[in-house]
Design a protein that fits this description.
The complex is a heterodimer of chains A (327) and B (282). Chain A is of the alpha+beta class and 327 residues long. Chain A has helices spanning 20-25, 33-48, 105-109, 115-118, 141-146, 151-167, 172-176, 180-198, 219-281, 292-305; strands at 51-54, 59-64, 67-73, 76-79, 86-91, 97-101, 119-121, 127-138, 202-213, 310-314. In chain A, the strands form three sheets. In chain A, strands 6, 7, 8 and 9 form a four-stranded antiparallel β-sheet that branches. In chain A, strands 3-2-5 form a three-stranded antiparallel β-sheet. In chain A, strands 1-4 form a two-stranded antiparallel ribbon. In chain A, a hairpin with a 2-residue loop joins strand 2 and strand 3 (67-73). Among the domains of chain B are: 5-68, no CATH class; 72-181, Tetrahydropterin Synthase, Chain A, CATH 3.30.479. In chain B, strands 6, 7, 8 and 9 form a four-stranded antiparallel β-sheet that branches. In chain B, helix 3 crosses helix 4 (149-168) and helix 5 crosses helix 6. Classes of the chains: A alpha+beta (327), B alpha+beta (282). Strand 10 of chain A pairs parallel with strand 10 of chain B, so a sheet runs across the interface.
Amino acid sequence: MTSVGSTLEPVESVDRPVEPIGRRETPPASRSLTGRTVATVLFAFYLLSGLYIIPADQQAVVTRFGRVTDRRALPGIHYALPWPFGRVYRLRVLETRRAVIGGEAADQTLGRSQPFQMQFLTGDQNVVQMRVVAQYHIASPPDFLFHAQDVETLVRDAVEAQLTRETAGRGVDALLTTDKAQVQQAAQSSAQTLLDGYGLGVSVSSVNIESAGPPPEVADAFRDVSGARADAARIVNEAQGYAHDVIPRARGNATQMHEAAAAYRARKINEAEGDAGRFRKLSDEYEKARGVTSQRMYVETMELVLPRIKKLILDRDVDLSILRRPE
Amino acid sequence: MITPLNLDVRRRIMAASGGAIIAAAWLSVFTVSETEFAIVTEFGRPVRTVASAGLHAKWPYQGLLRFDRRLRVYNPRPSEFLTKDKKNLVIENYVCWRIQNPERFVQTVGDPIAAEMRLHDIVWSGLAASLGNLELDSLVSAEPHRAHGDDLMETLTRDTSRRALEQYGIEVADVRVKRLNLPEQNKQSVFARMRAERERIARQYRAEGEEEALRIRAEADRQKEEILSAAYGAAYARDPQFYKLVRTLDAYKKILDDKTTAVLSSDSELLRILTKGAEARK
């Protein structure tokens, strides 16, 4: 059962029994009862060695003389022709297998992975560094076993080729932000199409971009862009803070002025009314009281202003029009 | 030895002939696995190819050659190619192939390593020729559906497979670009360009932020002025005389400070009573 250049190592299911044919030739032609019994028992054991059990997490492919006779033997107890006529290949069919593109995480932290292995060229001729993990499982056990020498490499290469195709059609900004999910989706389905074409009997369940970013040589420039985005937001926020401060303050000032004007008006009317009543009772000797309030305000202002200034009081002949009360 | 000599010889002859029969039977059947082709040879000359798995028969004197018929993947080393617009591109590809015609294969190539060397030559020349007719933009482009990589690969696979099958009995299932990259010596200039591009974007973000901030501040100042002037206007409309008085007295408060010297007339309204007594009132 050896073949030229074979690298496949099937899981041997049956214990290699003692070869009964050869055994019958070697003893001398003894006709004793014990010799026959021993031979019969050995032959029975040999036939029984064709029994095999498949545990719950496995399935098996069975061949007779090299040809597949059972494409999918499910968990349970089965019988196949014993070695060397039959052969049972067991597979963990439900197990999820991984293909890593861009080196294992451990290799990256130790600096072992080549940068070239991680770098992809984007559509706008930027370089991005990606680490991608594809997950797949066996869909058709015989195809998986017999159609290709190195299924894992083929899966990895096909996924990698489709990733390259997707990244070469996109800009770096879209790739690092919005298009990531799209790239994963597209790479998964197109890699599946390729692998179906190769007849590998596997199903790619997911392609996951674990990390994607600029190469370390330009990482700081990329970080500065996000810094700039934050800066811009901060500047705008500060301006909005200013606007939120200055407008209500102006509104408050305006209200104050309105109220002061209203109060003045009310006071003036009240005073005028009060004065009018008083003057009607008193004689005409008094001056009219119309200017009293403004006079008072004037005097109050002078009380406020004059204490802090130097004063020089002159006689009447000097013209001092600057301090005259406004008409 | 107790047994007579003639009996011993008979047994030996029987055993030998039995052994010969079994050996002859053993030599005239052979199995072919799902993963292989077998060629039946007569003294080295291929007679027939067995492609179906299972139990087969041959004459005992005939020999057997077995070939793995499974799909193999060949990863040539990454090589540098020149596009039509004279840009260097490092391409890493993979080639899926299998033996299709074992007789032809054994006559022309013989073993998988020699086969991969032949494939490398075919694929390399095919890639070089087709890339020489393509601009870099048609392989790598941010605009969707501009890249023609798929067409290139299909043509290349078809041509390679035709040549490999005719010459070496090899079926090429797929030739595909696994990785596109720029040559290491171009990397630094690419990084410089990427850096410049990022700096431009960063500057643009900051400038846009400042522009927006300026606009917001100017808008706030304009609103403030509008509100205040509307308020002054309202005060003026309500009582022009009061507005005049308030503004003038406010101005006094600001103008007159401790550096001011006021020269007051004893005749001024404020001081008249001081100098002339209460009787001086007009």
